[in-house]
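Re: your question about Ribosomal RNA small subunit methyltransferase I

S., sorry for the slow reply, the queue was backed up all week. Below is exactly what I fed in.
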Amino acid sequence: MEILRNPLPPGLYFVATPIGAARDITLKALDILASADVLAAEDTRTARHLMQIHGIALGDRPLIAYHDHSAPSVRDGLVGMAASGKSVACVSEAGTPMVSDPGFPLARAAIAAGVAVHAAPGPSAMLAALVVAGLPSDRVLFAGFPPAQAGARGRMLDDLASVPATLVFYESPRRISRLLEEMVVSLGPDREAAVCRELTKRFEEISRGTLADLAQAFAGREVKGEIVLVVGRALPRQAEAADLEAALDEALARLSVKDAVAEVAASLDLPRRQVYRAALDREGKA
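Result:
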């Protein structure tokens, strides 16, 4: 059944498209694809195929390639069409535009030009991975693709090592083994993680365990498909008894017990109750 076109207000519409199963697309996304005056796609072949599956005719509407290698003039042209009163739909090859694709500069340019920007939410590899990883999702940092250069990649991992949030990475199947090995060194072997491969597709695979376990499991393994790596938050640092004593001595010399306990607990990432007991013990011995 062919979907009919309905008038769509002028503006730029970012449309999430399936990361695997074509039926994951939303009804709102189908309405926009059927009704937009102009379509911009990271991969025009993928967009055409998706529309054909769902019975959406392109007709005489322009389908413009817009990707990482597009000239700035292509972006400016899309913004110009939206500013002139047309509805412009932008779709990534898969997933939600703006996440590791050229959507961000397009959105920035549209906002600067006073063009209305809309989102048609839907499939997202990052969110799908968070659902199946089994790791905390109340605080999340999306890190995207790690740098290809070893030095830059190492600095990135060092910067993220102490972040108290679940980390989400996209990575090539050819490089996942190397990344896991480097994470064992930078983030620690005991961090919980999940390698999510081919999400929503026929050969979906979720591998869970510590970074050390996963590094061993993927060492020398030939891997195919799209990968999302989810890494659990940094483990609380366990202060040595000597560290706690030294920090309390220094803080109590200039602060009240209450303030000293608060400062040391924060600096050593320890429960206040534990630090308070240690402070009372030291005062009792004084």
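The chain is about 40% helix and 15% strand. The chain has a mean pLDDT of 91.

Happy to talk it through on Thursday.
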